[in-house]
Design brief:
Layout: H1 15-38, H2 46-79
Helix pairs in contact: 1-2
């Protein structure tokens, strides 16, 4: 059996987990938020709709990413 070329023992926050959870939660939470907020908004063209979804989705993504990272950081501290 050949020796492994590279091994890691990650310490701290698992950033891959944070990115994956952020991606999934942004879709699961963000889609209904964008849909609900678009109801009262006047969006006459597809360009307006896309711009609206991007702007609201960016805020949802940022809030979700910060929340997931904060959760992961606290969980990592509690393990120690």
């Amino acid at each position: 059996m050949p020796e492994p070329v590279e091994t890691t023992s990650p310490e701290g926050v698992d950033y891959a987990w944070v990115m994956q959870v952020t991606f999934v939660l942004t879709i699961v939470v963000g889609a209904p938020i964008v849909a609900l907020l678009s109801i009262p908004a006047e969006l006459p063209s597809w360009g307006d709709r896309v711009e609206f979804a991007i702007r609201v989705g960016a805020v949802v993504w940022l809030v979700t990413a910060v929340a997931v990272f904060t959760y992961a950081k606290r969980a990592e501290r509690e393990e120690q």
